[in-house]
Amino acid sequence: MDVSTCLKSLLLAIRQYRNNRSALNASQLQKHIEDISGLKCAGVLFSGQVLPSECLSGLMEVAGDINTSHALTGTIISLLAQFASDGETKEALHSSYNFTGTLAAIIHCNRSTPEEPLVLQCLNVLQRLTYNVRTLHCASHIHELISFLMQHVQSSNDDIVKACLGLVANLCRHDVTVQAHIKSQSNVKAFYRALINFLGHNCLTVVVFALSILSSLTLNEEVGQKLFNAKNIHQTFQLIFNITVNGDGTLTRNYAVDLLVDLLKNPKIADYLTKYKHLSVCLSEVLGLLHSKDPDTASKVMELLVSLCSVPVLRKLVCETVLRPPAPRLQPGTRKGVQARGSEPSLALVHWVTSPLDGPEQCYMQALSLLAELFEEAIGSSLCSSAQSFVELLLQEVLVLLQSPDSTEGDQLLKKHCLRAGRVVDFLLVLCGDDALRMLVSQRVSPEVCVSQVELLLSYSQDLTGSTCSTSSYQLSQLCAEVVLKTLELMSHLRQTMPDMETSFYRILQDQRMVTPLSLAMTSNRREHVQIALRILFEAAPLPDFPSVILGDSIAANNAYRQRDGELSIRRSSASEDASFISKSFPTMHTEPSGSASHSIDSLIEKLQNGVEEKVKDVHMSEIIDVYEQKLSALASKESRLQDLLEAKALALSQADRLIAQYRCQRAQAEAEARKLASLLKDTERRKEDLQAELNDQLLEVERLKSDSQQLLQHNGRLQAVADQHQELKGTYNQLLSRYDKSEGTLKDLQAAHISLTQQAEGLRKTNEGLRLQQERTLAELAEKEQQIKGLKADVLEKDSNITGLQNELRRQEEQIKEMEENISILRKELNKTEQARKDTSIKASSLELQKSQLEAKLEKIEEELGKHTQMIAMIHSLSSGKLKGDVTANLSL
What we know:
Helix content: over 70%
Largest sheet: none
Pfam family, one: CIP2A_N
Number of strands: 0
Number of helices: 36
Protein name: Protein CIP2A isoform X2
Low-confidence stretches: 327-342, 572-602, 611-619
Organism: Danio rerio
């Protein structure tokens, strides 16, 4: 059966079960649900059509009923849980059908039996459903759900504990209302103590859940400051990176990455991470996960890297790690040195950027965002020049992403294409910030690519604007307009180096279809859209054929549309009051089937024309006249608007006449240009022949390239084998790493013992050296003493011989002394005589000294007189010459 038939059967079974809740109807309904679960019908179920919506609403009602059996409720939840992984269907279940409130109600009804498999199933589905989705605090049974989770986090069942912790982590994250509600509970301190105890749990998933909840609730409080202080934060970093690299599942890795992303929003913790000593090693291991074949793992890793780029110091480190040129090395089995590019994270990014459009959206979106962040950092640094080869490779792959998708795939694929094309253009705009990279972009990007992209999006936007006015179509139209304006901004950057790009740029600006993107951007509530529109408008306004009048009308229409939406919201509230007033004034009309306002007024007019007199309670003629007057005033206003439209049509006809005259003139010019084109066509045909020859050469080159590609594919197979071997070695490396950690602890103990023993040995060595030197000095002194003893013995012998000689000499000297004494007696007599002669001589000397003093006094008088005479002579001779004076003075002195 097709999906439509299955849905009709399902809806019929739901109605039968609601009318009669028998076991037969329940089994029939369960069978139809199992049939639906075997079909891939997510797109049909959540398409917004009437039949699927009624089926989903009926299933929600049956599942939320307290009288429904657990088996049937579990089957319904299993069916809906299949769609909780996709983003849009999860959002529809969450917002449109209140699946969260239904599951919370089921848990609340079975709160007395938490060990039931249905409760665990609801908790697991709720955890998947609320991941990265904000839950409305006013939803049904949310308060009861939070109380249930806080109560059962200390359950003896590990599965319930894990599900409760994961669900609390989802509800607390980025939701201040839920955080305030948890903090207001009476058992919050016991809840905190339980979470802190979970930090030592043997399951890493439980540890990450507990850390995530504590960071959401207590990061800016005293408890959080103690938990995430400078001493403990490095252990937290190591735990998060270990789980990210060697995690026991995608779920644990996702929550670990989310925890680090949330912690990085705190400036103090971001500063702690910049000082983490193992950050470079951990970052290299995280980048190695980009080579994983799991798109969820790769997208989460890229989300972490984008978050790291929000910190300037970390962004520089990530940029150097990703864009660093690889070192050449020899691969096994080859003789020539080649670069082992299989392990480069940049090539892994290229792989995820070029993933299929219908694949996981987060992969290529996060990869493009990461590349934009990296090249924003690389521009202006030394990495910019070394990354040019990578940019060339990247441009070859990225420009393919701008090709238009198949129009038969629907709006969903077009929306994905617009999102990816917008990120691609943002990345190209980042590259245009550097002159060298802008030249590379201008060499790769052709005007045809930009023009085809703009033409495609303008045509889609025109179709969406003219076909329906639904919310999804309006959002898609805005998305197309955003990509168009970004593409035009890229063309504006490249038009200075590409003349063809400038011609295409100005031609597109004069297209009347540009009115819609510009008007939507000018009236947008996003600042960057308005700024882009103003830059484009600044370029387009001076052009002669730019539709400025139509643009003004479109902007005014958008503003009027927004104003009318605001007025309609006010009118809806007043309409409810008017409806209550009319129901009181016209109770007989209230019992009739509801119809349009015009139908009720026409029926009243018909009754009055036929003269039907009815006695209606509380109906007054004045009120009926007021209704007629309002209707007539509305018709008069419509007539005036129609008159304005006729005048506008007349003006348009006159403009059409002028356009026809211009067209005839342009047709003549076109015929002349056609003749010129005919001559150009001949030249083109000649050039075509030349190009045909070149094409043949190119075909030969293509054949050669095919053979080269086959060789590359074989080489790629060998690289894949090497990659598999690398994975095996990685497992071995992890085991060795754990052994290394243990060995490192043992090594530290041995090193401490070695250091102490080394110090003792050094002390003993110094003592031994001192004793050895002392022994050498003692031996040297002993040798010297022996030499001295020998010398003293020789001296003693000599002195003995000298003593005998001296004794003989002493005898001779005694004899001489006797002779001397005799001589001394003689000399004493002579000395007495000499003393008497000295006394006489001293008397004579004293008399001579007296005579000398008298002569000296006389001499001084003579010298004074001589000085006076000398001065007189000098005065006499001073009149003649100085020379004579000098001579006379010299003579006188002589």
